[in-house]
């Protein structure tokens, strides 16, 4: 960590200590300069979320590892309480949503600079975000898949509309010109989208100092090497387990490992699994597909058990079945979801027999060998058709990511003749749109550098989408091959 950054972190942790934030189970006030050190340390994890929290000691599943008292939570309400002018101004705009109010409140605090009570905390926020709303035209097109392109266009349109609606209030508050700009709004709404936590009294949630340093792991990934320590034993049955209160036990069983607790008026964080000293301690913000992670948090996971690939179906498939369209998807392992499988099975039944097959299909049964083969062939062919019409293959995307990684390392592109033509044209379009090459010299502005980050995310997203479709083709082919060999062996036995 660079010196000014380290100093700013140090003063932030001191500020947090004074507000009663603590990673120690003891509620007595400490003389320490840092609220961390008992259970957690701040550490940089370049491959897994950047700045995050590491275990300062071996931690047991279910242990309380961080407490953030209510007075340290930044909410619209707490910001209004300390700023009468802001509170009066907001009341004149009842149509603004709670997220818009929190965004304006955040910009209003930034406007105060060092005189804001929250200044040490605000200095810890990232300077910009790479969520879908921040994607420009080029990066949006790089997603390649219509659904993702629409989601990104919708996110950036929504951000712009919300900014427009809030500008009158921001002018009334006399914010500095740079804080009135869309760029500042994107920063505020990106902060809210990627850093707030749920509280029961405000839909916009709260900003939770130190608690928002936890990076994400998808729910369902709770096991680790350290889990071996308790292999075969339920953690709650261990006599020497440090789990004490009922709250801690209850928390260990929950999906969400953090929440606001009325009885202690604090946001409490519990370890979702055992951690060895030095491991990164992670939090599950919820169950998200990669597109949702990109939309709300600006990152995605190469191994995401909750990822889904949606494909366009025949129009009568939607009308014929009673499933909501968001249930019709291909899972990350390439298998169709239960609803998609039943929809395709039903569609593969001749139209005049469908009515009598509905019950069987919805109970998850295969109808017949022929029906299964028709359904699997349709699904495999659909995936192949989608993949064939896309401008690049998954393999190309992998190559392009490697080229961009290399470029970011050595600031030079490999010889263009070594780059496959479809990638070279995307690369040229990028260089042109960001004015990267001028008179044969490659000069990257900070804008172009940030754009590369978003472009890489778009490429990675479409690469992972294509991988799911490729896995689906493999799965369908295996099912068909199995059926054919079963049928051949039955026929062989009959002869
Ligand atoms: C609540 S903050 C977590 C702390 C953050 N790393 C920081 O420095 O403030 C959420 C942000 O952290 C990053 N992040 C969290 N988990 C991640 C992961 N598993 N992989 C990549 N980035 C992650 C994303 O930028 C996300 O928007």
UniProtKB/TrEMBL annotation:
* Superkingdom assignment: Eukaryota
Pfam families on file: Rubis-subs-bind, SET
The answer on whether this UniProt entry bears the keyword S-adenosyl-L-methionine reads yes
Residues in SET domain copies: 38-286
Q: Which UniProt keywords apply?
A: Methyltransferase, S-adenosyl-L-methionine, Transferase
Q: Name one GO biological process term.
A: methylation
Fetch the SUPFAM superfamilies from UniProt: SET domain (SSF82199)
UniProt GO MF annotations: protein-lysine N-methyltransferase activity
Instruction: Kindly provide the name given to this protein in its UniProt entry.
Output: SET domain-containing protein
From what organism does this protein derive? Anisodus tanguticus
| Higher taxonomy | Eukaryota, Viridiplantae, Streptophyta, Embryophyta, Tracheophyta
């Amino acid at each position: 960590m660079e010196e000014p950054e380290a100093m700013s972190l140090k003063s932030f942790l001191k500020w947090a200590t004074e507000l009663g934030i603590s990673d120690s189970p003891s509620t007595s006030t400490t003389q320490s300069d840092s609220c961390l050190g008992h259970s957690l340390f701040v550490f940089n994890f370049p491959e897994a979320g950047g700045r995050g929290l590491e275990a300062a000691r071996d931690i047991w599943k279910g242990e309380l590892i961080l407490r953030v008292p209510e007075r340290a939570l930044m909410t619209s309400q707490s910001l209004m309480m300390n700023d009468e002018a802001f509170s009066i101004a907001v009341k004149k705009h009842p149509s603004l949503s709670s997220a818009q109010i929190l965004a304006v409140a955040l910009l209003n605090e930034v406007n105060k600079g060092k005189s804001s009570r929250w200044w040490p905390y605000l200095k810890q926020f990232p300077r910009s975000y790479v969520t879908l709303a921040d994607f420009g035209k080029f990066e949006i097109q790089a997603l390649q898949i219509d659904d993702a392109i629409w989601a990104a266009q919708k996110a950036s349109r929504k951000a712009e509309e919300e900014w427009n609606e809030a500008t009158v209030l921001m002018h009334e508050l006399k914010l500095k010109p740079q804080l009135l700009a869309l760029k500042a709004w994107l920063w505020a709404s990106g902060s809210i989208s990627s850093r707030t936590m749920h509280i029961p009294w405000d839909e916009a949630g709260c900003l939770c100092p130190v608690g928002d340093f936890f990076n994400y792991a998808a729910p369902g990934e709770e096991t680790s090497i350290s889990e071996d320590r308790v292999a075969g034993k339920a953690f709650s049955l261990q006599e020497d387990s440090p789990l004490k209160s009922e709250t801690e036990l209850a928390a260990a069983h929950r999906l969400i490992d953090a929440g606001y607790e009325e009885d202690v008026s604090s946001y409490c964080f519990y370890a979702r699994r055992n951690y060895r000293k030095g491991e990164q301690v992670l939090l599950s913000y919820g169950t998200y597909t990669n597109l949702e992670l990109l939309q709300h948090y600006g990152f995605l996971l190469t191994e995401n058990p909750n990822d889904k690939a949606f494909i366009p179906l025949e129009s009568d498939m939607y009308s014929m079945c009673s499933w909501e369209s968001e249930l019709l998807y291909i899972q990350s392992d390439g298998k169709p979801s239960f609803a998609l499988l039943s929809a395709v099975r039903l569609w593969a039944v001749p139209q005049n027999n469908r009515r009598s097959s509905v019950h069987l299909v919805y109970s998850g049964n295969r109808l017949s060998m022929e029906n299964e083969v028709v359904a699997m062939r349709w699904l495999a062919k659909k995936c192949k058709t989608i993949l064939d019409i896309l401008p690049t293959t998954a393999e190309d995307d992998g190559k392009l990511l490697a080229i961009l990684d290399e470029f970011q390392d050595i600031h030079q592109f490999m010889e263009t003749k070594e780059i496959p033509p479809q990638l070279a044209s995307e690369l040229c379009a990028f260089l042109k749109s960001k004015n990267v090459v001028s008179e044969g010299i490659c000069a990257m502005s900070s804008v172009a550098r940030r754009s590369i980050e978003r472009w890489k995310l778009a490429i990675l997203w479409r690469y992972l989408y294509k991988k799911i479709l490729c896995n689906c083709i493999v799965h369908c082919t295996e099912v068909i091959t199995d059926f054919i060999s079963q049928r051949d062996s039955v026929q062989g036995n009959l002869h």
